[in-house]
Amino acid sequence: MCGTIGRVPEYASIIALDALLADLRVGQARRRQLGMVRGELYRALERGGLPVGARRSLRRLLEQEALTTYLRLAESGALRERQVNGGYPPTSQATNAARHQCLHLLRTAYGLPSLRLGSGGRVPLRPTPDHGTLTALRRRLDQDLATAMSPGHTRLTAVLALVLDAAPRAGELTALRLTHFTPDHEAVYIQRRPQRGGGEADDAWFALSPLARAALERWLAVRTQLVERAHGTSRLWVSLFVNHDGTRHQEGRAVLRPPGLPLEEKGLLLSYRTGRARYGLTTLLPPKLEQLRRAVLDQTPPVPLDTAPTAHIG
Fold first, then answer.
1. Cα-based distances in Å from 133 to 155, 202, 273, 281
2. Is 314's pLDDT higher than 60?
3. Helix and strand counts by DSSP (H, E) for the chain
4. Which of these, 229, 233, 119, 224, lies nearest to 175 by C-alpha position?
5. Contact at 8 Å (CB) between 234 and 156?
6. Contact partners, residue 92, CB within 8 Å, separation at least 6
7. In terms of CB atoms within 10 Å, which end of the chain has fewer, N or C?
């Protein structure tokens, strides 16, 4: 169930919405946004802000009459779960855009046509690196692989090389396991997690360049040592340092996690942002990993292999 609010839902439409959400195949970031929308819709119903029929029917909840009112309330800040600086200010342009995207996803998954609900605060896409910058990035990564690198630099280099070859999203990257590669590391299997959800995901095998194979093998050597300390995992990306999981012992001390545990999407994106500056890549890498992915798709789109190599997908 996505975005539960601490009680059994009272409305048939929310029960149906939870079932719909459970079947959607989306990344972690989109699922968090869907959870936000689910919570807002529940609060709008609970406060009597939507048509009565929207309580009994998911179709009625997703129709224009209910959604138009919901968006007005949500964008005003009235459906916030908690106060911000002592009040309930309007939500940001980025949040408004994400909210519209989630509603489009939900209507599509339910079998309803697209619905124009205003601008939704759409945010212009950030610019992407040009072809020359991507070429320079590949050259720089190749040069770095010929030097001694820290574990963090090694991991980031492997991440970037895979993005340049297969253009996976952050959620698709973090889902990678050792079994998603051929034994010789000449190909990788990407399980697509489209942000807008709905329809069949375009999962496929992609050939890896010599750069990606070298970067991957360099990272796997580091990973082996890290995973041994954490008693093993099949996930490709693992943590480098001791951290905590946000919980505490009864004595109040944070529960520590050893290095070598699976790296989640949030951690991978953080490593991209910090590594971009730490390893002198600010002139070659855009601020967001998604910008790099879009540049690859625009300029050198990866072509799936015609036939699947012999390998096991776990």
1. 21, 28, 18, 11
2. no
3. 12, 4
4. 233
5. no
6. 121
7. C
Give the pLDDT confidence of 237-247 residue by residue, as tens digits: 999 987 655 44
Q: Taking all residues of the chain, what is their mean pLDDT, rounded to a whole number?
A: 86
- Alpha carbon distance 235, 233 (integer Å): 6
Residue 15 CB burial class (10 angstroms; 0-12, 13-18, ≥19): middle
Q: Which of the pair, 31 or 312, is modelled with greater confidence?
A: 31
Rg value, the chain, Cα = 22
Written as six digits, the tokens of 135 are: 């070429």
| Under 8 Å between Cβ of 7 and 39 | no
What domains does the chain contain, in order, with CATH numbers? 12-110 (no CATH), 131-299 (1.10.443.10)
Q: Which amino acid is at 116?
A: R
In whole angstroms, what is the distance from residue 190 CA to residue 171 CA? 11
- Separation CA 155–CA 162 (nearest Å): 11
Contact, 261 vs 237, CB < 8 A? Answer: no
Q: What is the pLDDT of residues 255-294, one digit of tens each?
A: 567 888 999 999 999 999 999 999 999 999 999 999 999 8
Is the Cβ–Cβ distance between 311 and 182 less than 8 Å? yes
**How far are the Cα atoms of 22, 141, 199 from residue 30, in angstroms, in the given order?**
13, 30, 16
Pair of tokens at residue 235: 């996930």
- Helix axis angle for 93-110 and 64-76, nearest 10°, is 160
CB 134 within 8 A of CB 298: no
Amino acid at 190: I
Q: How far is CA 84 from CA 74, 78, 88, 228, 273, in A?
A: 14, 12, 6, 44, 26
Helical H runs in 57-150? 58-61, 64-76, 93-110, 131-144
Evaluate if residue 197 carries a pLDDT over 80: no
